[in-house]
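Narrative of activities, Objective 1.

The group set out to show that a structural description can be obtained from nothing but a protein's sequence at a throughput compatible with the screening campaign. Below is one input-output pair from the validation batch, recorded exactly as produced.
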Amino acid sequence: MEVILNGENLKLSEEIVYVSDLLEYYKLLDKVVVIEVNGEILNKVDHQETRLSDRDRIEIVHFVGGG
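Output recorded for this entry:
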């Protein structure tokens, strides 16, 4: 499946089916993130239930601390 992730075309492996799978792949599962899929911002509880589809547009924003 091919998606657009943060503006870049990306081919996902077959193991990545849900948004939570994508977050786990990028090691963001335990981070504070905001996920938007096709213009809709997801609640954290929806990450495990939202299936990804070919040509989805996904935006992932995560916060980095520092000083």
